# Entry
Amino acid sequence: MGLLIDAAVGEPPASAHPVASFGTAMATLEGHTYRDSVTAGAVHLSGGLVLACLAAVGSRHLLGATASTAGAVALCSAGRMLDREALAVAARLEAGDLDGARTRVAGLVGRDTTALGAGEVARATIESVAENHVDAVVATMVWAALGGAAGAWVHRAVNTLDAMVGHRNDRYLHFGRVPARVDDAINYLPARLAALSVVLVRPTRAGRIVRSVKSGAGDHPSPNGGVIEAAFAAALGVTLGGTNVYGGTVENRGTLGFGPAPDAGDIRRAVGLRRRSTLTALVLLASAEVAWTATRR
# Structure
C-alpha cells in the first residue's frame, strides 16, 4: 500500500516532509554532538534512532499498525521522485542541453558534474537510479516487512545520517564511521535482494549479471552500491563505474558491466528496469512472508 501511495502521489514538499525535518533536527543536534571521534558519531546515531523510534511509536498509536506501516513506507520511499529526476536528465540530454543535464544530475549525485560529457552524465544518472533503488525503495520494503513502521523509520534515519555524515573527509572520517558502517550492514540484504530481482527481470542476461557482480562489485567503495550497480550495468548491456571527482579528489571505482557507455535511452531503460525490479522484489518478499507464516501454524 505504501508503495502505491508513493507511486501515485509522490513525496510531500520538503517543508512538510518528516524525513526533511529529521535531517534538519540532526543537523542541529550535530552542533552539540560533534567531536572528531568514532564515539561521538555513535552517540549522534543513537540520537537519530531515538527520534525514528518515537516517530514509529507515535504513528502506530495514532493510526494503528497497518496504516502506520503503509504511511512509513510511502514517506520513506522515493521511487517516484527518483524516476522523475532521472527522466528529466534524459530529456535534457535528448534535447542537446548538456548544461541543463549537468545541473539536473547534480541533484542526484555527490560527484562534481560541471565538466561531465553526455555519456558521463548518463552514467551518473543510471548509477544513482541503481543505488537509490536499494536505499530508497527495496530497503524500505525489506525493513517494513521485518519491523513494520519502526523498521522503515529506523532504516530511513540511518540512511539519512549516512548521507549527511558518512563521508571520508577531514571532518567526518571518524565521526561518520559508525553511521556509515551501520548503513552498510542494514542495506546488505536489500542490495542482494534487489540484484536477485534484476536477474529475474532479465533472465536471459543472468550469467552476465552474475559475472559483472563477481568481477566488478569488489572495486566499488560501497559493498552494496557495487553489487546493484554491477547488476544494472549487465542487465542494461552498458558499462558503468570508472573515475569520479568529489570536491577535487579523484576516485576510481573500477569497471562494472560489459558494453558501451550509456546514453539517454539507457537512462529510460534503467528507470523501467527499476520499476520491474521493485515489483519482483515485492513478490519475493510477499512470498517469503507467506512461507514464514505457514511454518508458524
User: Anything to note?
Assistant: The longest strand covers residues 249-257. The radius of gyration is 19 Å. The longest helix spans residues 118-165.
